[in-house]
Amino acid sequence: MITPDERLVLGLKALDRLWPVLDKARLDIQTTLRPAHNRQHAVAPAPSQPADPAVSPAQEITPQTVPSLPAVLKQIGGLPDYAILLGVCNDSLPFILDLTNPAPGSILIAGDRHPDSLKLLDAMLVSAGLLNKASKVSYDLLCEANEVSLQACSLANCNQIYDISDSSAAERICTLAALAEQRRRTSPHGPVLILAIEDLASLTRQLNESDFARLFWLLKRAPKARVWVIANLYAEDAEQIDERLLGAFRTRLIGATDDPLRAAYLAGDEQVEAASLEPGRQYGVPFGEDWLNVWVCEPEHLE
Q1: DSSP collapsed to 3 states, the chain
Q2: How far, in Å, CA of 140 to CA of 123, rounded?
Q3: Is the distance from CB of 36 to CB of 266 less than 8 angstroms?
Q4: How far apart are CA 187 and CA 196, in angstroms?
Q5: How do residues 30-78 score in pLDDT, each as one tens digit?
Q6: pTM summary value
């Protein structure tokens, strides 16, 4: 028998789950593993016919029915500036990140190495480009030489592509750290800049102590100045990453991995269940005390 108090708790949890989508799909990712407080309650919009049945809130997502990125953006309709899409949850609701809210902090994407390992990073950057003018949101990409394969590189929002092994990559980290520090001292307002890293372990092997310190500072402090880091890490390289650097990522998006201990280490939480996720297509995302499974929405071909 459920008591009135238990029913109230369940109701609050349900509201906590739904309010960001109802509030123009904005979402403040909670990564502290405790309930969020002082939230404003959202008002549900009037019922309307979905623009695309593939993303109807009533339909459960399966590997065969994951909507494309254009389909999801069409369904969402207009979004405020500075939003990017992480994907869709099992119940078809979109998962949106507000780049003006620094609470989620720097973002780590981690999972076993797979041909589709970079799909989430690519989809997030493409959504940033499709939802925002380059004057508002732009990104740099640090990658291995001759390994540029992301569709996001073809968008006007892509500033420059840097070879991880080249000194220019470390120089860009230093430049962004200096910019973020200047913004923090004056005003955090300004265009959002994203530093996307294809292989975090490969990058850290190239950094000297000073450059490492600047990257660490970026991860910890820069989101408050609208400078974000989104880094991909192959799970098998987890032991190569300094624990201090790993701990600087406030949000961990955990992909499929067969090693539950490694998944728990990367997530900072033993409750994450990564073994059953679809490799490269599905990720566990922290939300309050829970983990939501989010599907990657592929960008499709960009002209």
Answers
A1: CCCHHHHHHHHHHHHHHHHHHHCCCCCCCCCCCCCCCCCCCCCCCCCCCCCCHHHCCCCCCCCCCCCCHHHHHHHHCCCCCCEEEEEEECCCCEEEEECCCCCCCCEEEEECCCCCCCHHHHHHHHHHHHHCCCCCEEEEEEECCCCCCCHHHHCCCEEEEEECCCHHHHHHHHHHHHHHHHHHHCCCCCCEEEEEECCHHHHHHHCCHHHHHHHHHHHHHHHHHCEEEEEEEEHHHHHHCCHHHHHCCCEEEECCCCCHHHHHHHHCCCCCCCCCCCCCCEEEEEECCEEEEEECCCCCCCC
A2: 15
A3: no
A4: 23
A5: 332 222 222 222 222 222 333 344 444 447 888 888 999 999 988 887 7
A6: 0.81
Pair 211, 155: CB distance under 8 Å: no
Q: Which two tokens stand for residue 154?
A: 């073809």
For residues 249 and 104, what is the distance between their CA atoms, to the nearest angstrom? 9
> CA gyration radius for the chain?
19
**pLDDT given for residue 17 in this prediction:** 36
Query: Residue 48 forms beta bridges with which residues?
Result: none
Show the tokens assigned to 45: 């919009």
Tokens 């990073």 belong to residue = 121
